[in-house]
Amino acid sequence: MPLSASFVLRVPYGATDQMGVVYYANYLNWFEMGRTEFCRKYGMPYVNWEEKGVFMPVVEVRCRYKHPARYDDLIRIDTYLKEVKPYSLSFEFKVYRDSDDMFLAEGFTKHGFCDKRGKLLKKPKPFYDKLICLLQQ
Amino acid sequence: MPLSASFVLRVPYGATDQMGVVYYANYLNWFEMGRTEFCRKYGMPYVNWEEKGVFMPVVEVRCRYKHPARYDDLIRIDTYLKEVKPYSLSFEFKVYRDSDDMFLAEGFTKHGFCDKRGKLLKKPKPFYDKLICLLQQ
Amino acid sequence: MPLSASFVLRVPYGATDQMGVVYYANYLNWFEMGRTEFCRKYGMPYVNWEEKGVFMPVVEVRCRYKHPARYDDLIRIDTYLKEVKPYSLSFEFKVYRDSDDMFLAEGFTKHGFCDKRGKLLKKPKPFYDKLICLLQQ
Amino acid sequence: MPLSASFVLRVPYGATDQMGVVYYANYLNWFEMGRTEFCRKYGMPYVNWEEKGVFMPVVEVRCRYKHPARYDDLIRIDTYLKEVKPYSLSFEFKVYRDSDDMFLAEGFTKHGFCDKRGKLLKKPKPFYDKLICLLQQ
């Protein structure tokens, strides 16, 4: 079973638009909260990455929206580590309305391992080895 | 040649993050500005859609990030009408740094035709017919 | 002692800017989360307001920034009900870094009581009476 | 007559909320666009400030909302240089709906002169002298 981490948030008013539902770009912010939670849960908070000079810019994102989220809904983002490669890693996300487990959206992000200037890093230590271990659990 | 519309904006400070480049969710806001410009250019401003009870919620989005955008860059979003189906339409986007035409990102959004409550609408008039005409030009 | 409610959140990456700290507009989103929590805590969730046709648009905001918030900080927003008038109410906010109670910012928002079209409402029931009771506790 | 600069933008969909009008935090993003335009117009683009190690974090903001802005409105932000002090400067803003000059909001921001680490700078060259000259025009 793939490793995952859950993050719960309450939809703020500012995330809605005049359609009365959450504006689509906000899900990407939620994916990022999910990734942050994943990294923390498995002992490598993303703040440590940047402190050690390893950055994780997004190179690709996808999202499918199934059912709208609304103001004041409790939302749960389940984040899965999908793949680790020498120069990149990718996550998958599933977004649920927490009250009734209604499936709202699913997404994917792929990230490069980079230094502060955006230059690719190969298998950055110690994070790469740790991620490989996690995948093998 | 597919129909397209261009929209230019200057990257605001608030769109950057601590990596010193534009945060990835902002591109989805730019895609929306591109769609708005496309609809206006071809004689059917999106405000008119909603006035007539036709809404266009996003059901899918994809974006590939090639090169970062930075604060104060002039950015050009080229929006293309990709496909029109009875219940949906889709757009493609290409994002450039306007000063030197550096290719920054490309994206895709798919939208359902819906009423205010989110129920699917089939070939909503007069927009569907107009879109089909545009595609045949 | 004035009534208050606390709300804690973790600073997301997207809230930072290239100065490496939280972009100033995000505090207004946090104030709103604080107000939402206040209303819920005292038995009148803001979703109920809108369901009953009472809206609370912001007519004034102020914020003083004392110390920057950073990515991954746990932030606590303390929200105080400041004043209730026939046509308006106002809140005060204090923002702290939760780990060491460092005082980060303080703010104020004033809101009109309005109907859906933005027309002012006088002492909207049942919320106005409830707010007055709260203030007298 | 005080120096000013105007900036025009079209309200994006993502700036609205479920009240059907622009969410209040967006005005702070617009103020920043106004400041950027002001600095550029008077020959000292803010990108140059940061290149020379001078940062301008916001220490105070105020906004009064008079009339709502809506999706697709053309908005004009007039930015005025209000005051320059050894360690700070402040701006005022007036926001109009461009089509009919309807007055929508007015605001104020105060900024410290700081280095990259947030330490106050006194009369940072060459910007401070230039600002003083501008005020005396």
Give an overview in words.
With 137 residues, chain A is of the alpha+beta class. Chain A has a single domain (4-136), classed as Hotdog Thioesterase (Thiol Ester Dehydrase, Chain A). In chain A, 23% of the residues lie in helices and 34% in strands. The first copy, chain A, has three helices and five strands; from the N terminus they run E-H-H-E-E-E-E-H. In chain A, strands 1-3-4-5-2 form a five-stranded antiparallel beta sheet. The longest helix of chain A has 16 residues, at 26-41. Chain A is elongated, with a radius of gyration of 16 Å. Chain A starts with a strand and ends with a helix. Chains A and D meet through loops of A and loops of D. Strand 2 (58-65) of chain A pairs antiparallel with strand 2 (58-65) of chain B, so a sheet runs across the interface.
- State the distance separating the first and last CA atoms of chain A: 9 Å
CATH class of chain A: Alpha Beta
Beta-strand residue fraction of chain A: 25-35%
Largest interface, counted with CB-CB under 8 A? A-B, 22 and 22 residues
CATH architecture of chain A: Roll
Kindly report the average pLDDT value of chain A: 96
Q: Could you name the CATH homologous superfamily of chain A?
A: Hotdog Thioesterase
CATH topology of chain A: Thiol Ester Dehydrase, Chain A
Helix fraction of chain A, binned, reads 10-25%
Envelope shape of chain A: elongated
Strand order of the largest sheet of chain A: 1-3-4-5-2
The oligomeric status of these chains comes to homotetramer
Structural class of chain A: alpha+beta
Total DSSP E strands of chain A: 5
Element order, helices and strands of chain A? EHHEEEEH
Low-pLDDT regions of chain A:
none
Q: How many helices of chain A?
A: 3
